[in-house]
Write a structure and sequence with these properties.
Layout: H1 11-40, H2 57-61, H3 72-79, H4 81-91, H5 98-126, H6 131-154, H7 161-171, H8 174-193, H9 195-203
Length: 204
């Protein structure tokens, strides 16, 4: 028996996924170009190397930058197409079955866990903050929260009214959950690397 499609049509989520996917893909593309430039001219500084702390080179050249045997940005080039396609499909009127949302959420959850691991490696092992990596982190984290809140709200987790009500209540909390996660990461970076002054110099 085929799974019934989830009833809710998450237009706002769809728009966010398209925007986040485009931003994430651009960051992955930029990092891929930087990696290729490094292969051509290993001694040259990357265009995103702003200081000892805020730089891309250390991350790209590290073992953490090629966890699966090839540069991590290649994962981003492929993976960020998924939320773009899903978001555009929803905006075009598509509705997906529960099993599809579970598969999609599993991929987003893996991305979220991978990002948290990379953040920890950057702060506590490499001692750097990669600008384009941070762009990727900044869209992966809210996407994770948004997708899982939708899972609860739409009935993908359970069709029980109470579960769906929890999801609806959590919708307004997505920005706060995102900000808190960012704040924890920034606090750890500040404690470990004194990163805030470095980031301010790059921004301004």
């Amino acid at each position: 028996m085929l799974s019934r499609p989830v009833a809710a049509r998450p237009t706002v989520l769809a728009i966010w996924m398209v925007v986040a996917g485009v931003i994430g893909w651009i960051a992955a593309f930029a990092l891929t170009i930087e990696k290729l430039d490094k292969l051509v001219a290993p001694t040259d500084a990357a265009s995103c190397d702003f200081s000892v702390i805020v730089q891309c080179s250390a991350n790209l050249e590290s073992a953490q930058g090629s966890v699966f045997g090839f540069p991590n940005p290649i994962i981003g080039l492929a993976a960020w197409m998924a939320p773009i396609v899903v978001g555009m499909a929803i905006l075009a009127g598509a509705r997906f079955a529960r099993w599809f949302w579970w598969v999609f959420a599993a991929g987003i959850t893996f991305a979220f866990g991978f990002v948290l691991w990379l953040i920890g490696q950057s702060i506590f092992v490499l001692g750097t903050l990669c600008p384009w990596c941070m762009v990727t982190w900044s869209v992966t984290i809210p996407t994770f929260y948004a997708v899982w809140v939708h899972m609860f709200r739409s009935g993908a987790v359970s069709r029980a009214p109470r579960v769906r009500a929890i999801g609806s209540a959590l919708t307004a909390w997505i920005p706060l959950m995102t900000i808190v996660t960012f704040a924890i990461g920034l606090l750890l970076a500040q404690i470990r690397l004194d990163a805030i002054p470095q980031l301010i110099k790059v921004i301004f």
